[in-house]
Design goal:
The structure is a single chain. By secondary structure, this protein is of the alpha+beta class. 32% of the residues lie in helices and 23% in strands. It is built from ten helices and 15 strands. The chain has helices at 50-61, 79-100, 125-137, 144-150, 199-211, 243-263, 282-293, 296-303, 309-316, 379-386, and strands at 9-14, 26-31, 37-42, 66-70, 111-115, 159-164, 169-175, 188-193, 228-233, 271-279, 329-332, 335-339, 342-343, 356-362, 368-375. The strands form three sheets. A six-stranded mixed beta sheet has the order 13-12-11-14-10-15. Strands 3-9-8-7-6 form a five-stranded mixed beta sheet, sandwiched between helices. A four-stranded mixed beta sheet has the order 1-2-4-5. A hairpin with a 2-residue loop joins strand 11 (329-332) and strand 12. Helix 2 (79-100) packs parallel to helix 3 (125-137). The longest helix has 22 residues, at 79-100.
Length: 390
């Protein structure tokens, strides 16, 4: 159930000393081939971390043999020196891997770099680079779980997944527990497949998958500087799936990881699915769902087990979506508390005692639909984010 489930991949996770806690903080994933296809999607934030800028260049090259990831520091807003640190990490990783596996013959341009942690501080390279060498010594087919643990920040548990095709597999790992907003979350994700697929096929599958998974989880409306999702192919299965088959498997893996991310959102006591139906367009449905997901009054009401449909309707009304205010229906956990823009069934019938909540909004404006996933806003979220840097 990890990035090393597909054939052709090894991974490791080690403690390089980047975290004061002494926990694992550096991961390495290596593609032994025979292929080395790559695709990636990245944060839409205009303020991008150095490793994002570097890895965007690497992905454009179409070949990636290794991904080195660190927690314990984002290397964001660190200027030219921070970018040089990323470059040095890639160079060091390539040289060290080549020295122990000459057949790989890596260059720095075949090494993707990902970082996560506090913004604004440079990474301690005197610890990170020896950590890379330690990770190389620990590489193995059983190293996927350790790698997933090493990229955690405020996560309470590692996130891994597997989706199987006919004779080929997609594996994955991700981290993220806050700033889960579209394009994408404060997340790092590495997906691997032993399918035969080139960069163009991988890119099409990955963009289709992230568009309906990672881009539709919205924990707190905040957008990170470091978001990265990479999809690597080894071709080790010898099987070339159809574009539809590849997209379906990658989407299944992304959906599973996205749900794990939102389930582990900082301080959350509710996992909320906002189903918007009857929209004029899918974009309208997404806009409405996102508006409700980001509404603090809705999120705090659900934390207090209050099915306050008035707050939901007010959030819908802030959008530019096509609908008539007196034609909107709202259900919370199956109880239609609002019909035609007014009170309907008794809100006391709504059971919010469990963790899972479903809000269904029918705009009665068309036939399009979309789902946005979010969580409630709790005291614990405020505490977590007020004490994070300390």
């Amino acid at each position: 159930m990890t990035v090393t489930t597909p054939r052709g991949f090894r991974a490791a996770g080690v403690a390089a000393g980047l975290k004061t806690s002494g926990a694992a903080d550096l991961a390495l994933v290596v593609n032994d081939g025979p292929d080395a296809g790559i695709a990636g999607v990245f944060t839409a934030n205009r303020v991008k971390a150095a490793p994002v800028l570097w890895t965007q260049q690497v992905v454009r090259g179409g070949v990636v043999r290794a991904v080195v990831l660190n927690s314990g520091g984002a290397n964001a807003c660190t200027g030219p020196a921070g970018f040089q640190d990323t470059h040095a990490t890639a160079e060091h990783t390539a040289a060290a891997l080549t020295s122990v596996s000459p057949r790989l013959m890596l260059g720095a341009g075949e090494v993707a770099v990902c970082s996560t942690g506090l913004i604004g501080e440079r990474l301690p390279m005197q610890k990170l680079l020896p950590g890379v060498r330690s990770a190389i010594r620990g590489l193995g087919r059983d190293g996927g779980t350790a790698a997933a643990e090493a990229i955690m920040t405020t996560d309470t548990r590692p996130k891994t997944t597997v989706a199987r095709g006919s004779g080929w597999t997609v594996g994955g790992m991700a981290k993220g527990a806050g700033m889960l907003a579209p394009a994408m979350a404060t997340m790092l994700c590495v997906l691997t497949t032993d399918a035969v697929a080139g960069p163009e096929a991988l890119d099409a599958a990955l963009r289709a998958a992230t568009g309906v998974t990672f881009d539709r989880i919205d924990s707190d409306g905040c957008m990170s500087t470091n978001d990265t999702v990479l999809l690597l192919s080894s071709g080790a299965s010898g099987v070339e799936p159809t574009p539809a088959e590849l997209t379906a498997a990658v989407t299944a893996a992304c959906h599973d990881l996205a749900q794990q991310l939102i389930a582990d959102a900082e301080g959350a006591t509710k996992q909320i699915a906002i189903d918007v139906v009857g929209a004029a367009t899918e974009a309208d449905a997404v806009e409405v769902g996102r508006s409700v997901a980001r509404n603090n009054l809705v999120k705090t009401a659900l934390f207090g087990n209050d099915p306050n449909w008035g707050r939901i309707l007010a959030a819908v009304g802030t959008t530019a979506a096509a609908f008539e205010p007196d034609g909107v229906d709202v259900a919370v956990n199956g109880i239609w508390v609002c019909r035609s823009g007014a009170a309907a069934e008794d809100r006391a019938k709504v059971d919010l005692s469990g963790r899972d909540v479903t809000i269904r909004i029918d705009l009665h404006a068309g036939s399009s639909a979309a789902t946005i996933w979010t969580n409630d806003l709790s005291h614990a979220y405020v505490h977590e984010n007020s004490a994070y840097s300390s």
